[in-house]
Design goal:
Molybdenum Cofactor Biosythetic Enzyme, Chain A, six-stranded mixed β-sheet, Putative competence-damage inducible protein (chains A, B), MoaB/Mog-like_dom_sf (chains A, B), globular, 3 domains, homodimer, 417 residues, Competence-induced_CinA (chains A, B), CinA_C (chains A, B), alpha/beta, 15 helices, 17 strands
């Protein structure tokens, strides 16, 4: 099955947004063994869209379109496909009810062009949109299937994964036997990792090993081909073991698991509750931790002690420590964590204080960071970092180091019963 | 001048990297008034690349190619273009010296395929690559110009800006005076906005008005063409005034300014300090507010009162309120904000409580959100929302509503001196 992706939207041709949809779809199709031979982007222009559709039909079995399903007059995708394959647009009652309910629930007036979103190509298979109003469609014409998906990634991605992918896998009679496993590393650079594994990377062909650096993390993608799933897993396990022998201390998780998610999972597994005291990071650490459903079973709460006097008044850090060592200090980080643990009655606590920049603070350079941890050992713990990068990079890296530090310490920790 | 961008590389069709090159080039061409009508991506495949080149030549004046200029056998771009326009490849001495020197300087052996990178299309204009080894080219054929640029953004971007852009501006006889102004709206849907402005959108040609919805916000891009900058601004101001007359209450800022940045700017301008009490949002609001350098002049700190007992113990919400109304209530939101204002000694405070989902809480549906505000009026203020979407969407939208709500209230607020 040869596929082609057509992205519709003048905002793409004006460079106002990056086309991450084409990347996402290509990636997923590659995994199930469908070849993508072209990605095309056209604007909200009926003539050029129709020309692109005609061409795609002539050379591809599967044409996936994103965008142009919105309520406004410049949304032309379903109209153009319907014209090309000679079918009318008809109201899809289920989608219409969904849209009407959406407005009713919110007590908002529904405009006529919202109704337009419930129009679908006659005889097409409708793909439900659980995150927006435009339904997707599968419309067949002779040997070619046109798949119409909404443009906003928040709507397109779940529709692709939950509605379309099972359909496609069924169409091609099961997944071809290529599997990837991603190993995630932190605290080691890409070139160091590559140097440590060079002979493996160069000699291994099944699975192949591909390193990739991104946002201070490095991943290794192991890709294996084999018709037998058990054999696939055996080959992946074997290679993973070789890698772990050399750089296992830096490995923290698999596939798409972020450091924060891994921490969340580990806190859950250990039934360990946590509290936070954030200055440098201003609540971003707890904001990320609470993005996971079920966070309330491990996260007690936190104090964002941004102003210095708030560290004393709300958190209870002693004036003496601040006067003697300043707020950008290991002593302050340790007291912040200890106070958070006590005030919020948690098993452990983590604190962040430091200089995000751009200016210095207490004569310390931007990137100076102290992370304190309470509750994981009898002795108070902290780490000091000197991080590179701008304000947001420093804050984000501090958070990642905090997660990694906690993960390593948690391994040895067990809840007192 | 009508342009088309062809991105070459199988890694794009496999979804291994995002095509930021096409976005970058489109953006820059839009600024100088060159229309991009198509973006096409093809793999490292001679037949399909040639087909794409043929088609581009037939419909575009300017064909910009990125990628496929590397040293390996699957790099085919210049070979394919040379074939199409019937020119041989010849060594470019300057590039050859540059490459030889590169290896000499680093004491590395130079391989034969590195020499291949110095081959250029005969009679083409060579674009120097100061960040890599593959030179770019401008090759003309009849009415069409082919521009060949390297694929790595680190090489492509400086070559585009420093070598190609001056050439293109010269070609089109100076920059056409096109300017955009983006108006940002919140609290109104795209279709409602369009309905309210339909006659303007349809009748206005200079500036044009283009709506775009993204993450719960809507923007209107006004694009004006005029040789005189003052006249440009006059035309933009005139259209903006017409728009503001109708939907001004939803407009909060310009261009790339986020709601949170606008709030930060307004707090600064009013010298108003703020504190937070976050349950639903878990610190994400303060995490975003502290992303701006200078946040300490307006942000005092916050309490992330995630567990119910923390709302009482650390924040000081009364047990009675929680027992009688629950934590998902306007009463709790109001007390959270009032307590944060008092505990953290700020001018104003904002609180977030609600159900992020996926499950219900206190028998309330996911998306039920209460935002409390203290300090902006004698009476306590709150708003109740029923937000759609998954867990993170609910949290993000709650934060945006909170910003928008504060922004509107702050307009009427002045610091007591």
């Amino acid at each position: 099955m040869n596929a082609e992706i057509i992205s519709v939207g003048s905002e793409l041709l004006l460079g106002q947004i990056v086309n991450t949809n084409a990347t996402f779809i290509s990636q997923k199709l590659a995994i199930i063994g469908v070849n993508v031979f072209y990605q095309t982007t056209v604007g909200d222009n009926s003539k050029r869209l129709t020309e692109a559709l005609r061409q795609a039909r002539s050379r591809s079995d599967l044409v996936i379109l994103t965008g142009g399903l919105g309520p406004t007059k410049d949304d032309l995708t379903k109209e153009s496909v319907a014209d090309l394959i000679g079918k009318p647009l008809v109201y899809h009652q289920e989608s219409l009810h969904y849209i009407e309910n959406y407005f009713k629930k919110r007590n908002k007036p529904m405009s006529e062009n919202n109704r337009k979103q419930a129009l679908v190509i006659e005889d097409s298979q409708v793909l439900a949109n659980h995150f927006g109003m435009a339904p997707g469609m599968i419309a067949s014409f002779e040997d070619c299937q046109f798949i119409l998906l909404p443009g906003p990634p928040k709507e397109m991605k779940p529709m692709f994964l939950n509605e379309l992918l099972p359909y496609l896998i069924n169409q091609i009679g099961g997944i071809e036997s290529i599997t990837s496993r991603v190993l995630r590393f932190f605290g080691i650079g890409e070139s160091q990792l590559e140097t440590d594994l060079l002979d493996l990377i160069e000699s291994q062909t099944n699975p192949t090993i591909a390193p990739l650096a991104n946002e201070g993390e490095v991943t290794l993608r192991l890709t294996v081909k084999h018709s037998n799933i058990e054999e696939q897993n055996r080959l992946l396990d074997e290679t993973e073991a070789l890698i772990m022998d050399r750089v296992g201390e830096y490995m923290y998780g698999y596939d798409d698991t972020s450091l924060m998610e891994q921490l969340f999972l580990q806190l859950n597994e250990k039934r360990c509750t946590i509290a936070t005291a954030e200055s440098l990071t201003g609540g971003k650490f707890s904001g990320l931790l609470t993005s996971f459903s079920g966070a309330s079973s491990v996260f007690r709460g936190g104090v964002v002690s941004y102003a210095t006097d708030v560290k004393e008044s709300v958190l209870g850090v002693s004036k003496d420590v601040i006067d003697r060592h300043g707020v950008i200090s290991s002593e302050c980080a340790i007291e912040m964590a200890a106070s958070a643990k006590e005030k919020l009655n948690s098993d452990i606590a983590i604190s962040f204080t430091g200089v995000a920049g751009p200016g210095t603070q207490e004569n310390k350079e931007p990137g100076t960071v102290f992370i304190g941890i309470a509750g994981l050992s009898a002795e108070p713990m902290y780490c000091q970092l000197n991080l590179a990068g701008g304000r947001e990079a420093v804050r984000d890296r501090a958070i990642k180091y905090g997660c990694f530090y906690l993960l390593n310490q948690l391994k040895r920790w067990n809840k007192a019963e």
